[in-house]
Amino acid sequence: MSLEYNRYLSHTAKELQPSGIRKFFDLAASMEGVISLGVGEPDFVTPWSIREAAILSIEQGFTSYTANPGLLELRQEITSYLGSRFGVDYDPTNQIIVTIGASQAIDLAFRAILNQNDEVLIVEPAFVSYAPLVSIAGGTPIPVATSPENGFKVTAAQIEAAITKKTKAILLCSPNNPTGSTLSKDDLLDIAQVIKKHDLLVVSDEIYAELTYDDTFTSVASIEGMYERTILINGFSKGFAMTGWRLGFLAAPKEFVEVMLKIFQYTTMCAPNMLQHGAIEALRNTYHEVESMRNSYRRRRNYVVQALNQMGLDCHTPGGAFYVFPSIRATGLTSEQFAEELLMQEKVAVVPGHVFGDSGEGYIRCSYASSMSQLQEALKRIKRFIESRGVSPKIEIEECTL
Ligand code: PLP
């Protein structure tokens, strides 16, 4: 006899929508000859010295649990990194937790600060995890839509207009996934005024900090008066090409860390010992490799933005991450139709913009973390596809200069 399973499930868990990114990813993986611009991960393998350090740690028998917040040596490296690179000072003994990816750090942050029905402002289009994680923690996600006219940057006025008595925090992500937009120091100074005026917290997802191409990256926590109200999230996945290692970290005032650490102790215990040894090596010795990956992404960004605009899809120039977010309105298709038909007709996988929030409708996300030859082929196919939908190129892509 089978149970009536619905009756047993939590309402919150049942109501979560599966990630729209996965849907296209799975469909593309089941087809032959597909070029995927769908996945949000580096096409580089983790630098060798990081892999070697992890292998060595296994050989040396580092197979036990570590301290709950992570190896002290790694936490020390993290605090020196945050201090020297972004100008924010933390104490490695009580202000850092090494987590299972930035994903877990975001989850911990929401669980630690939210009470039932507290509202969290989510700047959209946004990474798909934020709103579900707010809901799981009992809060209510409130979207704040951005648009290309302002380079997909959120303004202080937009934030202020969305604040209610229930607003507890705002999630900021710069560089942003999916738009690639970045908030400059001046943007953050304006936003900080509103946050301080309304006494809000910030969960600052800085996972793409290393992939900032034009301006220098500014951490929210480095802005005056923000350190005490910011939970800073970062990790190794993107900048160090370590997605599969599942290693991230958070840094925050010790009063927040104490509470997050309790949740972490019970749910996770600690991040894997041997992988933490790899992360120590990443922070000590691989900046030149991070820089060379960054330069390679920058070249690819320039090429893809130029090609998309020339073929007739309006695309703003993202300041960071490895995504472009062109408008597909000229085709008259919805973003879901565009992504589905492009996949079926030309075997190119992209992510429809609406999965990142309602304001993403009319756009697609393309990741340019693919080889130049794959990108060139994908762009030819996209051009052929949009021509079949009546969009004429402004200039031939072959004329694009790199
Ligand atoms: N935050 C953003 C904005 C992301 O794009 C991603 C991954 O795509 C994550 C967090 C999760 O990163 P991690 O692999 O460290 O869990």
Can you walk through the features of this model?
The structure is a single chain. The chain is α/β, with parallel strands linked by helices and 402 residues long. The protein folds into two domains: 7-46 and 288-399, Alpha-Beta Complex (Aspartate Aminotransferase, domain 1); 48-285, Aspartate Aminotransferase, domain 2. The protein is built from 13 helices and twelve strands. The protein has helices at residues 11-15, 20-29, 48-59, 72-86, 101-113, 130-136, 156-162, 185-197, 254-267, 273-285, 287-311, 335-346, 372-388, and strands at 35-36, 96-99, 119-124, 140-145, 167-173, 201-205, 230-235, 248-251, 323-324, 348-349, 351-352, 364-367. Helix 6 links the parallel strand 3 and strand 4 (140-145). Helix 3 (48-59) packs antiparallel against helix 10. It is globular. The model has no long low-confidence stretch (mean pLDDT 95). The structure holds pyridoxal-5'-phosphate.
Overall mean pLDDT = 95
Output the CATH homologous superfamily of the largest domain.
Answer: Type I PLP-dependent aspartate aminotransferase-like (Major domain)
Spell the H/E element sequence.
HHEHHEHEHEHEHEEEHHHEHEEEH
Bound heterogens, unique: pyridoxal-5'-phosphate
Structural class: alpha/beta
